[in-house]
Amino acid sequence: MATSTITADTTGLTGVSSTLNSASSSSSTTATNPNSVLDKDSFMTLLLTELQYQDPTSPMDTEKILTQTSQLATLESADNTNAALAELTTQLSNSQNYNAISAIGKMASLGSNTISLPDSGGTQFDVYFPNEIESGTLTISDLNGNIVKSVDLSNQAGNAGNISFNWDGTDSMGKALPAGSYSVTADYTDASGAAMQTQYGIFPVDSVKYDSGTVTMKLGNSYVPMSNIKEFF
């Protein structure tokens, strides 16, 4: 008596997958896989189908069955791990968003008081003054600590908060300085006569903005990526 068989690749499930794909195209009752992805359920279906259509005169040995079952378990474990990692990523993202919003109103430090001077055109920067200015001096120094420019703050009397300064890139003698990094500090007297100090790079967090998945915070008149902020206090 002739026996109708479907030949399976005894080295794994690859041959069975190919055979079933042929069978599914000719059977209207076979489920389709529009994404062409084999998940753990698909592998289980393949294994059971292989067992169902194996040649009774030459059945699959136990070792091969165990091997394929092990492959199925490995695939399921990988799927569970991927799902857990995706959930963890979502939780971390939500946590970061919450932390960003909770930083509004706090002080943020960029970890440095240096500004960058380009090759030409000068630069603009903000300095935060927590108290109302009575008088004082804004100092720009090179990386060796040498003062290259001093700015009288008398014309800022009565002002407080974020104040913008335009620097043309020249020193106190009007000589153009080379491009590079320069530090900015300020010593001033407030309205009560108390001596105060401040510097570039320390600002209150005014607001939070999400830009293409990146959390940015408004420090002074600019939005800075949260990853660039070194400290909140």
What would you say this structure looks like, in words?
The protein is α+β, with helices and mostly antiparallel strands. The protein folds into 2 domains: 14-99, no CATH class; 107-232, Immunoglobulin-like, CATH 2.60.40. Helices cover 29% and strands 32% of the residues. The protein is built from 3 helices and 12 strands; from the N terminus they run H-H-H-E-E-E-E-E-E-E-E-E-E-E-E. The chain has helices at residues 14-26, 40-52, 62-102, and strands at residues 107-109, 114-117, 123-129, 133-141, 147-152, 161-167, 180-190, 195-199, 202-211, 214-219, 222-225, 231-232. The strands form 3 sheets. A 5-stranded antiparallel β-sheet has the order 11-10-9-1-12. The chain is elongated, with a radius of gyration of 35 Å. It starts with 13 loop residues before the first helix and ends with a strand. Mean pLDDT is 79; it is low at 1-30.
